Amino acid sequence: MKSTPFTHIHLALGAKMAEFAGYNMPISYTGINDEHHAVRTNAGVFDVSHMGEFILKGEGALSLIQKVGSNDAAKLSNGQAQYSCLTNENGGIVDDMLVYCIEQNKVYMLVVNASNIQKDWDWIQQFNEGNLEMHNISDKTCLLAIQGPNATQILQPLTEMDILNLKYYTFVKGKFAGVENVLVSATGYTGAGGVEIYFENEGDNAQKIWDAIFAAGASAGIKPVGLGARDTLRLEKGYCLYGNDIDDYSTPFEAGLGWITKFTKDFTSSAFLKKQKEIGVEKKLVGFEMIDRGIPRHDYKIRDVEGNFIGTVTSGTQSPTLNKGIGMGYVLTEHAAVGSEIYIDIRDKAIKAVVVQLPFVK
Q1: Residue 294 belongs to a domain with what CATH number?
Q2: CB 326, CB 236: distance < 8 Å
Q3: Which of 62, 111, 160, 245 could form a disulfide with 314 if both were Cys (CB 3.0 to 4.6 A apart)?
Q4: Does the predicted model carry a pTM greater than 0.90?
Q5: pLDDT for 131
Q6: Spans of the chain, pLDDT less than 50
Q7: Residue 343 sits in which domain range?
């Protein structure tokens, strides 16, 4: 099992640890609900150094991203980021990713899911016909996500970069807590505000930045947060998790990601997806809230009023904010309308739920 540069800190803090994507990761410190509310109302720090980062450099960088990515990266200028996905020949999602424009047309960073690092690298490389310079910097990169409404206010004294006014899906680079070449972005996965900081894993950078953040946030009550709360936070906002809500067999249009699927250029599955957009999809990813008591979980069956199987739960939890069961899942399109009554199989009982508009928490 791999470690991140912060694993020794999590262990020293008594975090509950577990394997995630091959890494020994913190699941919780003081409890998922406590950490969840800390992020929603104040600020919390996530170690997400297990994520993958690729640098694409050279004249053909944009062309390659346009070929493999569903979104239109040509719209990006320096300091802007974009949510996109890699798609296979059948329109399935190889992975979702972030595209960072470091130098327009020449230098980009792709951020991918930890479990897909090698898979994504191999997928992109097969389209790298011009021998574009590609660097997998995943093992050399530290990544902390400091999330919550008070996050930027806590962090601003640690840098001369203006992160208080950082717009959504933009980033800046500079010195942070005395460490050079730090990239600070606003692309959060919690919907609670805040930033992510990328920096090189060398020397004592990891310890130095971790200590500086917690010293700056001590009086404000900043907390370390594990992946358990990261999951409940993202689910309340209706954000997809790869391997649960999206995968190689679900398409962007089925997953409600048509907004990151642009036909302004050709990409790996653009012809297939164009056709799917025209004829429509047979299944759709929906959000639902439990009406009766029950907590939906991944892979639970979804049924209609008559008890017919109509789909499967992809993600589910007890929402700490709403104090009720919520979930997402794929259902046949005729049952996907907001207000549709559905039933979730929980312990051999059909528990009533209703399809709702995402996000669950505004």
Answers
A1: 2.40.30.110
A2: yes
A3: 245
A4: yes
A5: 75
A6: none
A7: 282-356
